Amino acid sequence: MIMTKRIFITIALLTVCYAGLFSQSAALLRMKRDVAVLAADSLKGREAGTVGEAKAARHIEREFLKADVTLLYPSPGQDFSIIAAEGDTLKSSNIIGVVEGWDPKLRDQYILIGAHYDHLGTTVIKINGRDSLMIFAGADDNASGVAVMLEVARMVKESSMEFRRSVIFAAFGAEEKGMTGSWYFANRAFAPINDISLMINLDMVGRAAGRQNVSAYTVLPHTQLVTMLKDVADMPLMITPNIRTTDYFPSDHRIFATLGIPVVLFTSLIHRDYHTVRDTPEKLNYNVMEDLAHFTYNLVKVAANTQKPLEKTVFADQAEVPEDDPEMVYSQNEVDRRAIYDKGDERVFLTKWVYHYLKYPAEAISEGIQGRVIVDFIVEKDGEVTNVTINKSADQLLDDEAVRVIKASPKWKAAMIGGKPVRSKISLPVEFRLKR
Description:
Helix content: 25-40%
CATH superfamily of the largest domain: Zn peptidases
Oligomer: single chain
């Protein structure tokens, strides 16, 4: 009887183990393997300019080629040099893959997904009077981001005919050396930089405690981008990242943000093992990394298929527009004093006017239609609301109702620059949600 029980227990344990093994998806296993390779002791921390960093670059190249993602630059990649503090010249490179969009009119516009692959290298400390080599494996920082980027690249390539714009995948070198790789890409190597509609940066995405612990930072408020993030989060089975319209830590996205390109940094935040030898692969949450890969894929898909690219931010070069042009329209972030509605900002306008007078179309209710509409309008120098247009449509019924309410807006107080009123453009997300 005892022997029989032991046999049953053994079979049960084996069943649990095998079930756990087969429950891990192919994508999750690929990401585990990518992290294991990049964070291996043999790469000695992937410090910029070292053999370890070059080995990491070769692995990324191989994965791109295995997925049939076109390399924009042949091996050894988009190479550049760094002058170290000691005066030495270090060689590093960006590994750039591209999946071309199908639309002849939009394929020369780009969605860029970046993740740096270098880390801190090694250090020697004395333990019990003897030198000991300590390796900064950098599993979360940033083998995790590279693993997610590679998985998104595989998914995009498999469904490439669903993407109108082209998608670039950039593994940046030398991020830990002042973001040199991304700076070189944006300022020296990639000529059509202004044709990038959105830059997504994956940096330290592996230490989320759960699906609710991923954050998305857009650096600046950007109505279209925030709405796009929310729309993806509303899709079935998607994670819901914590969206912040600020920045969190310096990384490659900042280079693109300074050029006026809309950016989003995905991260599971800094932790106590950051930049220590304790940042190792077994501490990563690969399930959440897989969830983030699916979220990023869908975000890229939405951004690649919009009719118009995302609007540039206030950091974009506007030198071609004369400052004294009476028809100049400013964003709310460019002015000395923002346009004001009833002593408040856009949120006050939504609460006190839009949602107070908005009528959910009966036909939309009966058909179960809901969604999020983005409406653009201009507040003129005299406070009148003009040029009310749909930036992002949800449904014609919902679009028409949102436009109707905003067109009927009372006067605002105009935005001001140097004490003078100016025209300002506002984008507002209007929500239509049916109660369950």
